[in-house]
Write a structure and sequence with these properties.
Blueprint: H1 3-13, E1 22-28, E2 39-42, E3 47-50, E4 56-60, E5 67-72, E6 79-83, E7 89-93, H2 103-113, E8 122-123, E9 126-127, E10 133-137, H3 150-153, E11 160-162, E12 174-176, E13 187-191, E14 194-195, E15 215-221, H4 226-229, E16 235-241, E17 250-258, E18 262-273, E19 276-287, E20 296-308, E21 313-327, H5 334-339, E22 350-366, E23 370-387, E24 403-425, E25 428-450, E26 470-490, E27 495-519, E28 525-551, E29 557-567, H6 571-574, E30 581-583, E31 590-603, E32 607-628, E33 635-657, H7 658-662, E34 669-686, E35 703-713, E36 716-725, E37 728-729, E38 749-750, E39 753-764, E40 767-774, E41 782-786, E42 793-796, E43 801-809
Parallel strand pairs: 1-7, 13-16, 30-33
Antiparallel strand pairs: 1-4, 2-3, 2-5, 5-6, 8-9, 10-15, 11-12, 13-14, 15-16, 17-18, 17-43, 18-19, 19-20, 20-21, 21-22, 22-23, 23-24, 24-25, 25-26, 26-27, 27-28, 28-29, 29-31, 31-32, 32-33, 33-34, 34-35, 35-36, 36-39, 37-38, 39-40, 40-43, 41-42
């Protein structure tokens, strides 16, 4: 470890703990029984505490003046009290939530817990002070959860762009701020705080998406997440799965039917017995899709086991299994899309995913107001893609000919340790975080001929097609070690500064061979070349950042941050065996920074908002251009570091609680409306590639607007949402849409589109009914021009579809 690392650690850790004012208390239920593990949160000092087995607790580090203290325990009404340094002892009574509470009352209780839809400054062993964060509380959303409909689920997350598909929500593809949405590859994607993508460094694509029906919340941290979560520009997305029921056993089963023979079933089993608790689910999905050749079938299973050794120590184990097979109808040209968006001329394309995730987490709270967590995680997974891979999209697939087969295996594991210490300094509450991560991967990729049949046969057909034009076999070992730290320093009761750093040591490899064969029309071999490669990229570097937060007395917060970002070259950036695709031998990692300045909070107790401006500076951005290949004497797509880009814009989310404004006394009525507006611009500041400098950055719509309203009375809920996204380019050359393009479909703009979604639900005792219409206006549009699978070509989005869900809870 370098001397720089030691210097930073000494600087951040050389802090003395001072004496502090404390208040003792006890928490009981209405029967005067002590309540264990009640979460106690001091809004003034952003510190968490928990009650012991007798319900006793101690609150330390009180701020001067008023301290709003929130008491929360699942199954009980949330309680908030105001205390100050003159308090000696507290006795708190929590009222149990009645099982017959209406949906509206339950949602109102959730709103108390997630009042501002943002992460707290400190969450367990993570620091989010001064960062732009967002929290989606799934219980508050009325939406098509069976298919993970991202337009509805992420409606109140600003500036997201979405690649939509019609596979029942088996994959999630979200981006934003000029970052490609494909399989959420520009975010660090996590489930219950551990990585779930194929390879965090070499292949950060997420083929597995946690079912929305299993989620309690989705946490999103924008670009400043790079210090704690590593190499990405988009930030971090964390899927928090529901907690176990407090009852010994609870069963929830949900069945959904929808358009185009959609059927899904989600069944969960959870409970708590003494110190042991568990949550598990099984999710099955199948459907035919709205286009021919687009059927899918998937199965997923999850198990979470928890053991609470004591009030301060716990152990948690997760296992996730996910398997699906999907037929892919391929892409369309602009002419084909205009003629009939439902058509397909690919009947032999298949995609298969098998995912196995493991995680073990140990958590301990020290009596000196510190927390430690250690997370071990691993992945054993594969993805297989098979199909006719001609870039001439209009050419129909010919039965009996070879198909292209790509096989990928992902085996990796890692460990992440975090230590967070809360302390008082000069009368103010502060917090220090130090952590380290080790990550090791041994992945492989094979490309070659697939069989001449039409079935999902994922075996190489080298005997049938020995002269197949492109073949490769690679291993991709990766090794990563990092150290990171952040420190919240409160300069006053209201103003805090949070500096941070991250040290990375990365070793990326690609070892193997690729073979190119050219034949004449008679099948005679004209060119046969095998090239062996051993590509090793080893580097180490620091990332630095700082966050600022000023919390005003009226509940508003001014925040700002600037952090360096980094993205490692991936497998695809290093090697591909596609005959019409070449990669620069000098391709390097991408570097840059992200900054945010904003204001958030609540006004008049019924309007919450978050408005900010941001800038994303992207140096050595990897992209594609067309060149004349010196080796093949033909035009090819060429991947390289194409230039320096800047994306900047204004993002705002406003949520107005109309019911709280005009109907405050009606406990069983809710009505709210929101506006989510992102205005974005971008430019390539410089580039050595002709015709790119001065262009717009791809995947950047100037306007991204979502407006919606939700209304509920007792057990009836309904929501209506309108989405508008302006046009965006899909390549750095800013190619315009060719309406007469009947060959490729992979070049050009994504035209502007708008969509209207409607959902409703009704609960009666243990039964819940949900129904809705997505794309009410039946607009034909698309959000993606795929250059490879699942295309190539335009991938149309779903037309008007209906769904209905029935839920039983026992």
């Amino acid at each position: 470890m370098t001397s720089k690392v030691f210097s930073i650690l000494i600087l951040l850790f050389s802090i003395s703990t001072l004496a502090q004012k404390s208040v003792k208390g006890i928490i009981k239920d209405t029967n005067q029984k002590g309540l264990e593990n009640v979460e106690i949160y001091n809004k003034a000092t952003y510190q968490n505490y928990f009650s012991n087995a007798n319900g006793e607790f101690v609150i330390t580090s009180l701020a001067k003046g008023e301290n709003p203290i929130v008491f929360f325990l699942q199954g009980y009404k949330i309680r908030e009290v105001i205390i100050n340094e003159t308090f000696q002892d507290l006795e708190i009574t929590l009222e149990e939530l009645a099982t017959s509470l209406s949906e509206v009352v339950i949602i109102k209780e959730k709103e108390k817990q997630f009042a501002l839809n943002k992460l707290k400054d400190i969450e367990e062993t993570a620091i989010y002070a001064g960062k732009k964060t967002e929290v989606i509380s799934l219980d508050k959303i009325t939406a098509n959860k069976a298919t993970n409909n991202p337009r509805q689920v992420y409606a109140q997350v600003v500036g997201l762009t979405i690649n939509e598909s019609n596979d029942g929500g088996l994959q999630l593809s979200i981006g934003g701020r000029g970052l490609n949405p494909n399989r959420t590859s520009n975010f660090n994607t996590r489930q219950n705080d551990y990585d779930i993508s194929a390879d965090v460094l070499g292949y950060p694509e997420s083929y597995y998406a946690t079912p929305t029906e299993a989620l309690e919340a989705i946490q999103i941290v924008r670009g400043a997440a790079s210090l704690q979560y590593g190499t990405q520009f988009g930030g971090m997305v964390n899927f928090k799965i529901k907690k176990p029921s407090l009852q010994p056993i609870e069963i929830v089963t949900r069945s959904t039917v929808g358009s185009y023979n959609l059927f899904t079933n989600f069944t969960s089993l959870s409970g708590t017995k003494g110190k042991f608790s568990y949550y598990s689910f099984y999710n099955y999905k199948k459907g035919d899709g709205f286009r021919p050749n687009s059927k899918f079938d998937s199965k997923s299973f999850f198990a979470n086991l928890n053991y609470q050794f004591s009030q301060n120590t716990s152990l948690h184990f997760d296992y996730t299994y996910f398997d699906y097979l999907a037929q892919q109808p391929g892409g369309l040209t602009d002419v084909m899309f205009a003629e009939d968006p439902k058509q397909s001329n690919r009947a032999r394309n298949w995609f298969d995913v098998n995912w196995n995730l493991f995680a073990l987490r140990f958590k301990h709270h020290f009596e000196h107001n510190a927390d430690f967590s250690l997370q071990l995680f691993g992945l054993n997974a594969s993805r297989k893609a098979l199909g006719y891979r001609s870039n001439r999209v209009a050419n129909p697939d010919t039965p009996g000919t070879e198909r292209d087969l790509i096989l990928g295996d992902f085996v990796n594991w890692g460990a992440e340790a975090r230590y967070l210490k809360k302390y008082d300094l000069l009368g103010n509450s502060n917090a220090f975080l130090i952590g380290a991560k080790y990550y090791q991967a041994e992945n492989s990729g094979v490309q070659g001929p697939g069989s001449s049949g039409s079935d999902a046969n994922f075996n190489l057909a080298t005997d049938e097609f020995p002269n197949y034009r492109s073949q490769s076999d690679y291993s991709y070992p990766n090794l990563n070690f990092s150290i990171f730290g952040e420190n919240i320093v409160k300069l006053s009761e209201s103003f805090s500064v949070t500096p941070g750093f991250r040290y990375e040591n990365i070793k990326t490899q690609a070892n193997g061979f690729y073979r190119r064969i050219n034949t004449d029309l008679a099948g005679n071999v004209l060119f046969d070349q095998t090239i062996n490669e051993e590509n090793i990229k080893e580097r180490d570097f620091f990332l630095f950042g700082i966050g600022l937060s000023y919390k005003m007395k009226n509940g508003l917060e001014l925040y700002g941050n600037v952090s360096q970002n980094y993205r490692s070259v991936t497998f695809n950036d290093i090697r591909t065996a596609a005959p019409n695709f070449e990669i620069s031998a000098d391709i390097t990692d991408e570097k840059g920074y992200t900054s945010d300045i904003g204001i958030r909070g609540k006004m008049l107790d019924f309007v919450s908002f978050d408005a900010s401006v941001y800038a994303l500076y992207y140096n050595d951005k990897i992209g594609e251009s067309f060149i004349l290949s010196p080796t093949q004497a033909m035009p090819v797509r060429f991947r390289n570091n194409i230039g320096t880009a800047l994306t900047y814009g204004f993002e705002s989310l406003i949520d107005w609680n109309i019911a709280k404004t005009f109907f405050r006394d009606n406990e069983n009525f809710i009505w709210s409306t929101f506006s989510n507006i992102a205005i974005t611009d971008s430019e390539y500041l410089k580039s050595e590639v002709n015709a790119i400098e001065g262009n717009k950055v791809e995947f950047v719509p100037n306007y991204n607007v979502k407006i919606g309203t939700g209304l509920g009375y007792k057990n009836f809920l309904t929501s209506l949402q309108f989405t508008y996204v302006s046009s965006q380019f899909t390549d750095a050359l800013n190619n315009k849409t060719e309406q007469n393009d009947d060959t490729y479909g992979i070049f050009g703009e994504i035209p502007a589109y708008h969509v209207l979604d409607f959902s409703t639900s009704y609960k009666w005792k243990h039964l819940k009914l949900e129904a809705g219409i997505n794309n009410v206006l039946n607009n034909w549009y698309f959000t993606r021009r795929a250059t490879g699978y699942p295309g190539p070509g335009i991938i149309p989005s779903e037309p008007r579809v209906f769904y209905a869900t029935i839920e039983f809870k026992f």
